[in-house]
Specification:
heterodimer, A: Rossmann fold, nine-stranded mixed β-sheet, B: alpha/beta, 10 helices
Chain lengths: ~260, ~375
């Protein structure tokens, strides 16, 4: 399996050209998924692309959903002879385990979103401590935002503030920010503001949805990628495999 | 898992150890997971072996019928049969009473024959000379196993579980009705799970947590939406790093739609049960064997630990039947032959149209 082979997803994101500035530099990518179709495979794909690109790329993974062992096993199947443990030891991969983070209730006045501010500080510190060359090539990946809201006891304002702060990092350090959230949670009237704010912040919006006809073994769902930077929108089907994601136009089995 | 695959490169995967030794009621699953049985052999088959350790199972109840209790009973009974520690929480005043309704394992295999299997007979005709070996093997097998060491048991819902399975076991019951907040339940779960830490190596014992009707309105905390969600999140994380499986049943109609979706996203494995009207003529025309069905089970999501590939099932809706009024079975739905005279052969717009069994010519 040629790991450099790109697919429709890479094309839509601009990752197919091996151009030097990482196309997602300074960009915010928002991924929205649903119960029927989980979008975490896109995070794995982007992490794989980022880390295999060149040796100065660094990824900071903020995990609310799964422990390190899960990602390690998943990524191990994606790139042969490669694992997150060694990347972590080499200082190219930073894993922030946020599974137990819970902002204290009722503490919002004193330390607004206490835990989240500390998290931002940690990220900033980590990036500042990187060697000069890596500072310009950082990807921050958050899995996922709805769990960050739970950790913040439901105050989506604090989560949005946190995201705005991370946005400043994209301009200060040229990092890319990649987030995952669940679209179907916010589909009620008053709940949609958070999602809309995120969609506004994002340069690239990726929606992972089931097909209108339901789930199938050959086609796991459809992706809709809106790339504001390149003024492009694409829609295609996908099938997730252990080591990659296959993308193809409807009616074909591969692109 | 250790099967040799031919690779183009000379890289060879460094496998740390051989399969770890597992206690009773556990078996190895895909992607380095360890599975335990749900107590319903049909459900185990559907889910690919059972529930993986470290996963959170959520069951959406139907207010009209207590079918989720069937799932809970079998789940808990299976754990007790295998001497697995159990923590049970319910809104009842005295949850211990529920233990008296747990079913006992079925006596022997012959007791619940599923009738003759003519298809299998046909399939074996070519290999007729091996039939004699089949019979022998079966005898040997049954002789060596006794109920306790089977991975999964059929449970006889008519017979209560023998007392000795319940007494002298690590069974902890919590009533969640009167607690003003979830701290008591949280503490009990923490204590329970601290006995079952996960470390690489053999697993002598796995535990089960069963929480029934988590957001039912009798519970004082049931309007504290974010607290309940935080509890589920922290339970899921604790379960993830321990050798246990937690099952939570809840009535989705009592949650706001947005929170209902949040709970669904939390689940690793998501099931729902639905009641069947007693005398639904339309459904009776649509499905065969309708009279024996007591409800539907829907599989919305199957746990994907250590992998990113979703598990797409051939069918997601199954009928719940009680065979001989004692054994819980799940069956694919079969569409009844369409009556030509009624003219409407598109009458598949019933509630189960997405899941009719299509046989070997599946697309």
């Amino acid at each position: 399996m040629n790991q450099r082979s790109s697919n429709l997803l890479d094309e839509a994101l601009g990752l197919d050209q091996a151009s030097e500035p990482w196309p997602l530099k300074g960009r915010v990518v928002a991924i929205e998924d649903r119960v029927e179709t989980s979008g975490s495979f896109i995070l794995h794909h982007l992490l794989k692309r980022s880390l295999s690109r060149n040796s100065s790329n660094v990824s900071i993974f903020i995990a609310f959903a799964q422990p390190f062992s899960h990602y390690d096993r998943v990524l191990r199947k994606q790139i042969l002879g490669w694992n997150l443990v060694s990347q972590r030891d080499n200082g190219r991969f930073f894993f922030f385990d946020m599974l137990k983070l819970q902002c204290p209730v009722g503490d919002e006045g004193i330390t607004p979103g206490g835990g989240l501010i500390a998290l931002y500080g940690k990220i900033h510190k980590t990036i500042s401590a990187l060697p000069e060359i890596s500072q310009k090539n950082v990807s921050i990946i958050i899995d996922d935002l709805s769990l960050m809201e739970v950790a913040a006891n439901g105050s989506s304002d604090h989560v949005l503030d946190f995201l705005h702060y991370c946005r400043t990092l994209t301009s200060e350090f040229d990092c890319s920010l990649i987030t995952l959230n669940h679209e179907d949670i916010y589909s009620t009237e008053d709940g949609s503001t958070f999602l809309l704010q995120m969609a506004y912040l994002a340069d690239i919006l990726i929606k992972v949805e089931p097909l209108a006809t339901g789930l199938a073994a050959d086609v796991h769902g459809q992706l809709t990628v809106s790339n504001k930077g390149r003024n492009k929108a694409s829609n295609f089907h996908f099938k997730v495999k252990e080591n990659m994601v296959e993308c193809f136009y409807p009616g074909r089995s591969r692109d | 898992m250790a099967a040799a695959k031919t690779r183009a490169s000379s890289f060879s995967r460094h496998l740390s150890t051989a399969a770890p030794s597992l206690g009773p009621g556990l078996k190895c699953g895909p992607n380095g997971t360890v599975l335990l049985s749900s107590g319903i052999p049909d459900l185990d088959k559907i889910l690919g072996g059972g529930f993986p350790l470290g996963s959170l199972v959520m069951v959406m109840e139907d207010a009209e019928a207590p079918h989720h209790m069937l799932l809970l009973r079998n789940f808990m009974a299976q754990g007790l049969v295998h001497s697995q520690p159990l923590l049970y929480a319910s809104p009842a005043r005295d949850p211990r009473g529920f233990l008296g309704t747990l079913p006992s394992p079925a006596a022997s295999k012959d007791d619940k024959s599923r009738g003759p299997e003519p298809d299998q007979e046909k399939g074996l005709r070519i290999a007729w000379q091996y039939k004699k070996y089949f019979g022998e093997n079966q005898l040997n097998f049954d002789g060596q196993r006794d109920g306790k060491h089977e991975y999964s048991n059929e449970f006889n819902l008519r017979n209560p579980l023998e007392r000795h399975f319940i007494n002298g076991q690590r069974v902890d019951c919590v009533s969640i009705q009167d607690s003003p907040d979830l701290s008591i339940l949280q503490d009990r779960c923490t204590t329970f799970l601290s006995q079952l830490p996960r470390n690489d190596g053999s697993i002598s014992c796995a535990g089960r947590i069963a929480i029934q009707s988590f957001c039912s309105p009798q519970c004082v905390y049931s309007n504290m939406e974010w607290e309940m969600l935080s509890f589920i999140r922290s339970l899921k994380n604790m379960v993830r790093s321990s050798n246990s499986v937690a099952i939570i049943t809840f009535p989705p109609s009592l949650l706001s739609p947005s929170f209902c979706k949040r709970w669904q996203h939390m689940a690793d494995t998501l099931l729902s049960v639905k009641a069947i009207q007693d005398d639904d003529k339309e459904l009776a025309q649509l499905l065969t064997g309708y009279q024996d069905m007591i409800g539907f089970l829907n599989v919305h999501k199957v746990a994907r630990i250590n992998t990113q590939v979703p598990l797409i099932l051939e069918a997601t809706t199954f009928s719940i039947k009680l065979q001989k009024r004692r054994y819980l079975v799940l069956e694919c739905l079969n569409q009844a032959p369409v009556d030509g005279s009624s003219g409407n052969s598109d009458g598949t717009s019933g509630s189960c149209s997405s899941s009719s069994k299509t046989g070997n010519l599946d697309f």
